[in-house]
TrEMBL record:
<dbReference type="InterPro" id="IPR050287">
    <property type="entry name" value="MTA/SAH_deaminase"/>
</dbReference>
<keyword id="KW-0378">Hydrolase</keyword>
<protein>
    <submittedName>
        <fullName>Metal-dependent hydrolase</fullName>
    </submittedName>
</protein>
<feature type="domain" description="Amidohydrolase-related">
    <location>
        <begin position="57"/>
        <end position="381"/>
    </location>
</feature>
<dbReference type="GO" id="GO:0016787">
    <property type="term" value="F:hydrolase activity"/>
</dbReference>
<dbReference type="InterPro" id="IPR011059">
    <property type="entry name" value="Metal-dep_hydrolase_composite"/>
</dbReference>
<dbReference type="Pfam" id="PF01979">
    <property type="entry name" value="Amidohydro_1"/>
</dbReference>
<dbReference type="InterPro" id="IPR006680">
    <property type="entry name" value="Amidohydro-rel"/>
</dbReference>
<dbReference type="InterPro" id="IPR032466">
    <property type="entry name" value="Metal_Hydrolase"/>
</dbReference>
Length: 440
């Protein structure tokens, strides 16, 4: 059992309560008591304790949409227009995973941890990220992706999906939740959709889907015309019609629990009302949306739908830092009152992700898991969510299941870098390159 305290303990409860000079008493299994730091220390005098001055403690943050496998995409893909981006994904498909993917994914995990993220919703297209994520300190909702529009290939694609899903089910724990990703309405055949959602229903697995991300997708769903018509002709030599209308795609998810729709930039009021009725959540990825679709989600239309935040992958973002994402969102939504927006954003990476959901996380309360992030703040008498988002460029500490994980992760990364530097030096010595001008 131990106690940590800080100038502000931000509960992320319904009322956005903040305890000044607050403390949390916890062990590796969960939070035991929350209150005044000095009083907790007096009550549990034998416990180890630590106070973080000029800091706020929040629940560990959740990045709910991430493609770790695309961590080597930097500079390869075309930004500025969704169609150009998707063309570049297809044209570069042989090179998207890149060499030394493991190192890039390890760096990506470190970027997450450094930004106070203790939980990720990882979309896995190939399963190449399974081991590295399962062995990381992060808690993971692991969305095995189903994708494929070609009816002849469906059996193979479905079998491949099942193999990946089973591999991930073997890792199931309170740190690792197997789940299903349906790529999108333009890329998943109705037969494949039916089969994977049947599995989701039967096994009560969380599901995510890219949905209504681009104008091109909306046009395709509404009238089987526009960019996707040419896309199928150019890349698959086929004349196709959309498999779904916006409504019929959405309808397929009815009756499922824990559904996350990513992007929804082009969702109209009718679609949003249906998403609300289904109690599904929307994940927004502002930087990705700016880069691929020149647009941000209109928060004023959400009408109580729980909003979550994600970075997407390096395929559509320059970083996997959720603090970067929060900061950009704070600037992007210039028409919302600043502190109200900052609080909404903070809740989108904590409470909203887990409310009535799979794990006791996202809010600091007795019985919830001991996952906390500690952020250094500028000195201030009151807690301002805007200060956290503006000034915290990195987390100061990160606890997952009651253990501080950031210090060790940073130390391991440093050791690895030193090792590889020493290796490179040794190699260049052996090649007789040591001391050449080019090495300066
Ligand atoms: O969220 C972005 C944009 N929308 C759709 N897909 C992806 C995104 N980032 C990566 N992807 C992946 C997707 O999961 O791209 C692959 C899929 O496996 C190729 S099809 C766009
Ligand atoms: Fe994505």
């Amino acid at each position: 059992m131990q106690i940590i305290g800080a100038d502000f303990v931000v509960l992320c409860d319904e009322k956005f309560s903040v305890i000044k000079k607050g403390g949390i008493c916890f062990d590796t299994r969960g939070i035991l008591e929350i209150g005044d730091y000095v009083e907790l220390c007096a009550k549990y005098a034998e416990s180890k304790n630590e106070y973080f001055a000029s800091c706020a403690i929040t629940p560990a943050l959740a990045n709910m949409h991430l493609h770790l496998e695309f961590s080597k995409n930097v500079g390869i893909l075309h930004f500025g227009d969704f169609g150009d981006w998707l063309d570049s994904v297809l044209l570069e498909r042989e090179h998207l995973m890149g060499e030394d993917l493991q190192t890039a994914m390890q760096d990506g995990i470190l970027e997450c941890l450094k930004s106070g993220v203790g939980f990720v919703g990882a979309i896995s297209s190939y399963g190449a990220d399974l081991e590295i994520l399962a062995n990381s300190p992060l808690r993971v909702m692991y969305f095995n992706e189903a994708i494929g529009s070609n009816i002849e290939a469906l059996d193979v694609l479905y079998q491949n999906f099942l193999v990946r899903l089973n591999d991930s089910k073997a890792k199931k724990s309170t740190h690792f939740i197997p789940a299903i990703a349906v790529h999108s309405p333009y890329s998943v055949h109705p037969k494949l959709l039916e089969k994977v959602l049947e599995v989701a229903k039967k096994e009560n697995l969380p599901v995510s889907a890219h949905f209504l991300e681009s104008k091109a997708e909306r046009e395709w769903l509404e009238s089987s015309s526009g960019y996707f018509q040419g896309f199928y002709e150019r890349f698959f030599k086929k004349t196709m019609c959309s498999f779904y209308s916006t409504e019929s795609f959405l309808e397929a998810f009815s009756g499922l629990k824990n559904v996350y729709f990513t992007h929804c930039l082009e969702a109209n009021d009718k679609i949003l009302a249906k998403i609300k009725e289904q109690k599904a959540r929307i994940i927004t990825c502002p930087k990705s949306n700016r880069l691929l679709n020149n647009k941000f989600l209109d928060l004023s239309t959400l009408d109580g739908i729980l909003l979550c935040l994600g970075t997407d992958g390096k395929s559509s973002n320059d970083s996997l830092s959720l603090l970067d994402e929060l900061r950009i969102a704070l600037f992007a939504y210039a028409n919302r009152p600043l502190e109200t927006l900052a609080r909404e954003l903070l809740l989108s990476v904590t409470r909203n992700v887990f409310l009535d959901s799979v794990l006791p996380l996202g809010e600091l309360k007795v019985g919830n898991f001991s996952d906390f992030a500690v952020f250094k703040l500028p000195q201030s008498k009151e807690f301002l969510a805007q200060n956290l988002i503006l000034y915290a460029k990195e987390a100061h500490k990160l606890y997952i299941a009651g253990e501080e994980v950031l210090g060790l992760a940073l130390q391991k990364a440093l050791e690895k870098r030193l090792e590889s530097k020493a290796e490179k030096l040794e190699n260049s010595k052996q090649r007789g390159e040591y001391g050449k001008i080019s090495n300066f």
